[in-house]
Design goal:
Chain lengths: 109, 115
């Protein structure tokens, strides 16, 4: 079973920030949180990961709460090409990534 | 650019056929994975491999087998294809090792239809 919970869908206006929440209340102290996205008909694409501190890269920012029970992925200026399913993931006991159902983000003009 | 390449984007096979899905990675990664993706069910792990000739069952291994004779290649085999194996199949790899952080790279997927 997935260890994360995400809303099934969200809308965002083009040019605005998209804030995608994720709950991972059972995460253990040394487990990273990963975010991937999947654009229609393509394989999942890595976005960002984090452990305790907030992280930023050229694609997004990741804000992790102090208790590590939830996180938020931020796309600062969403474009139409950011329309995709976004997955918040932690690893399974066998080292594999366990995907939940993700959040379908629709960026609208 | 790092690459995970799946041999086919689309395949149509008949019920009962033996089907091979091939995946090759050029990053010298230790770990390789096969997932299937179905509407409403997300990605589910079929098999994975930590090393050459090593394999481990994932969540839904029934009806599948795998082969890893070389580090860069991981094959998924449908011994006798059935219509309920119609799906999108995704291959992935990551470096493995003892570190807790390992980014996975995915192929573009193979959409298999069994008729």
């Amino acid at each position: 079973d997935a260890k994360t919970t995400q809303p099934p869908s969200m809308d965002c206006a083009e040019g605005r920030a998209a804030n995608l929440p994720c709950n991972h209340s059972t995460i253990s102290g040394n487990e990273y949180v990963y975010w991937y996205r999947q654009i229609h008909s393509q394989g999942p694409q890595y976005i960002i990961h984090g452990l305790k501190n907030n992280e930023t890269n050229e694609m997004a920012s990741l804000i992790i709460t102090e208790d590590r029970k939830s996180s938020t992925l931020i796309l600062p200026h969403a474009t139409l090409r950011d329309t995709a399913v976004y997955y918040c993931i932690v690893k399974g006991s066998q080292g594999n990534l366990i995907f939940g159902k993700g959040t379908k983000l629709s960026v609208k003009p | 650019d790092v690459k995970v390449t799946q041999s086919s984007r689309y395949l149509v096979k008949r019920t009962g056929e033996k089907v091979f899905l091939e995946c090759v990675q050029d990053m010298d990664h230790e770990n390789m994975f096969w997932y299937r993706q179905d509407p409403g069910l997300g990605l589910r792990l079929i098999y994975f491999s930590y090393d050459v000739k090593m394999k481990e069952k994932g969540d839904i291994p029934e009806g599948y087998s795998v082969s890893r004779e070389k580090k860069e290649r991981f094959s998924l085999i449908l011994e006798s294809a059935s219509t309920n194996q119609t799906s999108m199949y995704l291959c992935a790899s990551n470096p493995g090792g003892g570190g807790m952080y390992t980014e996975a790279f995915f192929g573009q997927g193979t959409r298999l239809t069994v008729v």
